[in-house]
Amino acid sequence: MNAASAHLAIGTLSKRTGCNIETIRYYERVGLLPAPARSAGGYRLYGTDHLKRLTFIRRARALGFSIDDGRTLLKLADERKRPCAEVRVVAGAHLGDVRAKIADLRAMEQVLRKTLVRCARGAGSDCPLIEALYRQGSGHGSRVDGQHLVTWPSSPRSTSRRARPSRSRS
Question: Is residue 79 classed exposed, middle or buried when 0-12, 13-18 and 19+ CB atoms within 10 A define those classes?
Answer without folding.
Answer: exposed
